[in-house]
Amino acid sequence: MGGLTCRWAINALRAAGGGPLVNSAVLIATPNGGVDVLLWLSQLSQQFQTTLQDLARELVNLDVESAGARQMLPDSEFLQQLNRPDLADERVRYVLIAGAAQLSLQIGPLSRTFGVGDGLISANSATYLPGVPAKVYTVSERLGDTVETAWQAVRQSRVFHPRLMFNDDVAVATVAELLPGASGPRAELDSRLGGGVGLAARP
Fold this sequence. Notes:
Elements: H1 2-16, E1 24-28, H2 36-41, H3 46-60, H4 67-71, H5 77-82, E2 93-107, E3 110-117, H6 123-126, E4 134-143, H7 147-156, H8 161-164, H9 168-178, H10 183-193, E5 199-202
Parallel strand pairs: 1-2, 2-4
Antiparallel strand pairs: 2-3, 4-5
Helix pairs in contact: 9-10
């Protein structure tokens, strides 16, 4: 919830009056629109919920029964208040970075590809920011062919939520955006954006 906490603090500072204390904010894999999988999880049977809760703890260290997890539900009161456009501080320059994995599965003669975001946060949620413009980066990766290889790919993915903070593309984009006058990080970012490494940007 780090990114959500930052947004809440920035909005609270604006409401308190005075000049902005933050010039630029880079939000990495922040569930601005909520964590869709939590809403889906709440509709499953208790047995499936228990299994997936254990999986969430193993893969992304998430306790889906915590107060924080409940606040990240897409329809939570916390997110409804946070996402009110009239409360956003338009003086802050926002940069949003999202994981955008494509999971391909081949089961017999059938093949299907799913967009799974970073495995926890959808790309749509991570790039949602009402009330202020934002620059958006997505880091993409294609995973898996069969059920067995897909699971292995998920565990090793560089764009899944717990590893996204340590992804080199994310680090370069973050440094370049926080130090806009530094030519070295900007040149490296431009090289990666044009190098077909899975990093894409939009204004």
